[in-house]
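Possible race condition, two jobs.
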Amino acid sequence: MAAVPGLKRRGSAYTYRRRVPDELRPVLEKRELWVALGTTDYRKAVVEARRAAARVDDIFAEARKALAAGVAFEMPGKPGPSEREMTTAVAVELWRDQRAAASTSPVPMDMPAGDWVDALEKTIAMFRASDANARAALFARTVAIIRDHKLSIPVPEPVKGANGLSLAGQSFTLSPDFLRLQELVRRGEIEGRARALDRVEGKHGDMAHDPLFEGVTTFSPPPVQSVQGTTLGEAIERFNNDPTRAHLTESAGMKFVLMFRALKEIVGEARPVISITRPDCAETQELIAGLPPNFGKVKRYAELKTLKEVAALAAERRDRRLSVGTLRVYTHSMSSFFNWCISKGIVTANPAVRMAPPKSASEKGRRPYTIGELTKIFSALPVWSGSEGGRFWVPLIGLFSGMRLGEIVTLRVADVTQKDGVDCMVLRREADRRLKTPGAERVVPIHPELVRLGLLRYAEAMRKKGAEALFPDLPGEDQDQVADIFQKRFAYWTKTTLGVNAPGTSFHSFRHGFRDALREAGSPIDATRALGGWARSGGVEERYGQGTRPKTLAEVMARVKFDVDLSRLKPM
């Protein structure tokens, strides 16, 4: 999919940015225009960005006309009403009409019942066919609703004629919001007459023919009062565009995409968030649990419209389902969303709290690699990595530093430096690099074995090339994506190719092994915490010089030994 100029990601959501031409800045009083696209999905963002580009083109064109004419230019007004606001306005009008109809005779006094039935059926047919008379009536009713309910929708001025307001001879383009509201009005007009027919036939007249108006009755409160708070669709849109979440990565936002899709499929976008129950959340969790991994990339699943269809086909085929760990991630995302709703005053309780499945025995039993497993991995490393770049250095740094995978793959050339006369890797939080805990900001002396193998020479070579990233060859757009791709490829290589597939082993096993090696080396607890980032708090500067100076840490690091054969690794 071709890139769209101006498409930017702010946190987990996408925006469209456009520079204002110099000649238009005095008119628009802006240097840039930013348009929130309301999505965390890249493909959707591309589509919305192109639409935003067209709208901005229109704004620039109108601004140029105003500039040429020497008149003031006003930026387009605020966004139009939501679907819920428009639906509620139409439902209120139906409620008023039905309350009035219930207090009168079902048949006009001056008309036979048969003629009244014919008139109602003819009017319903007219609205369904949308003939000229119907369009005129719908236009007038839509304009009245816009004005009565103060909806932010532009209204074209009708022509005044001898017989009142008319659309004849007028040329204008109705806005998309106007047309959407007019369609809702059409459905409301049909619903009102269908209920009138019910009353003629002796029925109570409160049965909904259109699901849109379910619950609108002559004895119910007005729809405006019966709608309790923010709908799920509105909450999700607000969540995706919340500026307080702008620090999150795209990958973090993606953890919510499938969960939101499942939740909307179970309860519907129009459902007030406050009415969502724990059983609703449990049903959402069960739906996600029945999905196969990466189903969007498999043709037989990608062609299906709903997640329920995907889960049903997966069950029929007995395909592999999402792992317990993945299900836990999505369940935590659901709980996080409701916690966010609490923080915004949308709800007062979290219906998804403590719903995540417990960790499996294999997850609880994560362990270090054995010496035999390490020997097998590092003996084959030159073949897998080509003895250079990220594939070569990342496992070695993991072994001899205990750093987390996400910390290693985002190392910059500038992070390899000297502190206290010691060659170190310095980990700090950056805009595009998150660290797991406050203690993860730290100085890690470079192990003598990494120096022997040429890590410093490699870093210097990257510096001379003008590289910013220490491992620019690793694929991925951000920290999570780079780490995820590396983790999957490393896991496939070790488990499938090398047969290092014992339960509880993964790249994180290097970290477990490093802690054990520190213990064997007699490392003091404060040095152990500082080296591994296990300290509870404090940044690099806070701990610097408090018994954990780089020189002291380097002495501890030099005592860390692994009885593993690295003879096949040739120094750079």
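Job #2 (started ~2 s after job #1):
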Amino acid sequence: MTLKKGVHVIYDLLLFIGLAIIYFTEAVVLMLIPRRYRAKSIKGEIALITGGASGIGKLIAIKFAKLGAHVIVWDINKNGLAEVAEQIKKAGGKCWTYCCDIGDKEAVYHTAKAVQIEIGNIHYPSKVVESKETQNLINQRSVPLMT
């Protein structure tokens, strides 16, 4: 065995030991964290996504649908709404679209009421918004949804 080959063997052995320690530590930490604090399943939940006809909103809507959520998309772009609804339905998801300018408070009230009449309760961060709580939905629209 040459010196060069011996160095490679030692390098590979140290790399293996280092990675084994890292992955073992990760497994122990994950084992100690209760399952309820890990990633939450959104399968069957109803998610409201504003600005979901294009850009990041569209990608989030499609991702939520692929994860099993029923998606409600609000946007002012009617063509984009039709496109995202088609993509979600092709992927096997359930989607409702509403044309709404969220800069117009009255349009938001009207659309929120329509959603609650047609669909029912929607899941909002850490609570369910019931039809009598439309005001809470409107007042909390600036709360960041992704944490």
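The chain has five helices and five strands.
Logs attached separately.
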